[in-house]
Structure formats: C-alpha cells, structure tokens
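tokens incoming
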C-alpha cells in the first residue's frame, strides 16, 4: 500500500508468529519449561469448557506484524520475535527514585543532539534518526537505516545538512555508527547508568517519524529484557515502550526524564492494517554503547 508521506516506504513487515505458539495456534513450550494452564474464554466472555481451543491467541497473532522503523523508500522490514513473559526488573532497590524528571526540560536538552539521517543512492533512499554520543562527532543510528549503502547526510536541530561517513555496522544488534565534523554544533547526549532503568518510568522517543524532524513523543518503559530478534540474528533483551514510535524513528534515542538515553529505538509491533499500537522496542543503551565503541575502535 502506497503512502502520501514522503519517504515512508513499506509501513508493515512480514507476518509474525509468537514463539509461544506453534504454527497451528496452540502453545509451543520449550523442552523442560513449565506449561501454564489458561482457561479459554467462551462466547460470552465466561470461561470455556475444558478442551475448547484457545481462540483469542490465534485471532490476535494472525494479524500481528512487525516493522523496522526506517522511513525510506527502501526501508527494510525487520524480523522480530517477542517472548510472552515480562522479565524481572534489574538494578539496585530504590533506583527508581527521581526517575520522572522534567520532560519539557529533558526534551529541550535532547533535541540539541538528535539528527535526521538521510541515505540516498542507486535510485533508492532510506531515512531514520540518530544521536551524538561523544564530542568527536560519532552518531549512533540503526543498521537497517544505512544497510543498503549510499550517500549519508544528517540534519540537526538548526536545519544544517551535514555529510556523514559510515564508521561501522553491526547487523546483529541493528546498530551503526556514523561520523560528522566535530565542529557541527551537535551536543552529545548523556547515557543512563546501566541497571537503573525501571519499568513504569516516563520516557521520550525522539526522532523524525515520517520525516517530521524534531518530534518528541511520551510514554513509559513497559518492560525490560524483552527477548526480540533483530536483523534475523539471535534473540536479545530489548526495552519495550508504549511511547509512540513510527517509521523514521529508527536509530533515535529513547530517553528518561533526566534526558539520559536508555535505548535506541529500533522496531514496533503492529496489527495487520494498523500503525503504531503502543508496542515498541529499543536496544538497551548499555549494549548499544558497547557495540558503538567497538565499531569506533575498529573504524
């Protein structure tokens, strides 16, 4: 389905089936795992009879799709598989204190370090978002934004269009690093300390959804350590959020109320025929930073 939004590309990805279900829609549990019992709902919402097939998981998952968030005409749909259970919170007790912060002030600080990423060449284009991580001009974005190659430009808050060089890519974590002139005027964003992001704390997703640069949306951290598969690689823990993220947000930061980056926005889940449904995923900032530093060291 085409779109009138410039650079949107394909808004939906491939069909997605939860690993908790087998292809026929029945529970598929890994060897040695405990099998939970759920009484399926009957026609009027009451518990069904024993032996009735569980209808709602099949109906829901039949229409569930996933999409990586590149907004280019050559946008790449990402494969994502999410496990069904939330995992325990990490970090020391009491770390949630003061996580709210001032979202208005946080947005103002963050926007100074966020860029739109535009890739062109070969008759195809892609676009996404990114953010500065150091004073040497290194910009973190998603691998699927730049994977097809081409000339890369970034546009900052002041509207200046800067040429960027690709430093390195890591498809397995969907992280890539670019470099721009250190004198660009962009401000590096602080990274949240490892283990201190908490379920329920407010967050902002910042980037260029549908090419609308400098867009900020608010939500909360919905879950931590949510296993997802990015770029066809092995499952890895991700931050789940209900902050509205859409094609073009790829590579932009997910930040807390103090303006610290807690993740790199990477993918969303959608129901067939719909857009954002409040389920988005971000690469945790500690992993993204580790990968980025490795790419910088090798590049």
């Amino acid at each position: 389905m085409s779109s009138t939004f410039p650079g949107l590309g394909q808004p939906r990805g491939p069909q997605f089936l939860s690993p908790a279900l087998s292809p026929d829609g029945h529970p598929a549990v890994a060897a040695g795992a405990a099998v939970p019992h759920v009484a399926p709902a009957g026609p009027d919402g009451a518990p069904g009879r024993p032996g009735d097939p569980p209808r709602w998981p099949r109906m829901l998952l039949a229409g569930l799709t996933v999409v990586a968030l590149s907004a280019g005409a050559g946008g790449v749909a990402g494969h994502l598989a999410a496990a069904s259970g939330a995992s325990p919170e990490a970090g020391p007790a009491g770390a949630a204190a003061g996580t709210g912060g001032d979202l208005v002030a946080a947005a103002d600080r963050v926007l100074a370090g966020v860029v739109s990423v535009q890739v062109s060449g070969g008759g195809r284009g892609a676009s996404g978002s990114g953010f500065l991580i150091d004073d040497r001009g290194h910009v973190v974005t998603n691998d699927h934004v730049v994977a097809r190659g081409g000339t890369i430009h970034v546009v900052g808050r002041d509207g200046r269009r800067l040429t960027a060089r690709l430093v390195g890519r890591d498809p397995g974590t969907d992280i890539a690093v670019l470099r721009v002139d250190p004198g660009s005027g962009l401000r590096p964003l602080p990274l949240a300390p490892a283990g201190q992001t908490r379920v329920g704390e407010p967050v902002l997703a910042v980037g260029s959804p549908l090419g609308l640069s400098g867009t900020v949306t608010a939500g909360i951290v919905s879950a931590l350590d949510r296993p997802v598969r990015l770029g066809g690689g092995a499952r890895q823990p991700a931050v789940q959020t209900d902050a509205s993220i859409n094609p073009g947000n790829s590579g932009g930061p997910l930040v807390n109320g103090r303006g610290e980056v807690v993740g790199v926005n990477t993918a969303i889940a959608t129901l067939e025929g719909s857009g954002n449904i409040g389920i988005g995923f971000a690469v945790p900032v500690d992993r993204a930073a580790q990968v980025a530093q490795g790419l910088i060291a090798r590049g």
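note: The first strand starts at residue 64 and ends at 68.
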